[in-house]
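Re-running the complex after MR caught last week's input typo. The corrected sequence lines follow. Everything else is unchanged.
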Amino acid sequence: MKNLLVKATWAFLIVSAVLAVGTAIAGIEFRGTISGDVLEFSPDTDGPETEAVKKFKETGENPYDGNLESAKAGYVIFSTACAGCHGHLAEGKLGPALSDDYWTYPKNETDKGLFETIYGGANGMMGPQRGRLQIDEILHVISFVRSFKDGKSEAAPAEHHSEE
Ligand code: HEC
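Corrected-run output:
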C-alpha cells in the first residue's frame, strides 16, 4: 500500500516536471484581447527575431521600456501607424487616448497585454497590427506609449501639439 503511494507520488512529480519543462521551452502564451484565443505568430511578416523580440517572447516584458531612443523610434512608427486614429500625441481621436493611465482593457497596463491588443487587435476599427508592423516595431511603439508621464512624453516633438 505504501509502495503504491510512493509510486503515485513519483508519477506525479515526473508529470509535473515534464509539463514545467514544456512550458519553459514554449515561452509564454499570448492571447487575443477580445477572443482569448492563443495568438499564432506569423514568421513571414513578424520581422527579425532581434534580441528584444526574443527576450519579450520569453518574459512578456518589453526590453525597450525606459529607453528614450527607443521611445523616439516608436513615436516615428506611431505617427504613421496609429496617430491617424489615436492622435499625434496619443491623446485620443477616433480611438481612445493611450497617453493617460485609463485602459478600456485593464490588461494593457502590462506590456504583454498591450502587445496582445496591438498585435491581435481589439473591437471595431482597432484591427490587428500583425502583418502591418513587425514585432520589433510594436515593441518600439509600446516603449513610446510607456514614455508618457502626466499625458506628456519627451519622445514626441513639442511642435506636434494637437492642432488637428
Ligand atoms: C483605424 C483606426 C485605428 C488605428 C490605425 C489604430 N487604432 Fe488602436 N484603437 C482604435 C479604436 C477605435 C479603439 C477602441 C477599440 C476597443 O475599445 O475595442 C482602439 C483601441 C486601442 C487600444 C486599447 C486601449 C484601451 O484603453 O485599452 C490600444 C492599446 C490601441 N488601440 C493601440 C493602437 C496602436 C499602438 C496602434 C498603431 C500600431 C493603433 N492602435 C492603431 C482605432 C485604431
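None of the earlier attempt is carried over here. Residues 118 and 129 are 6 Å apart (CA to CA). The mean pLDDT is 90.
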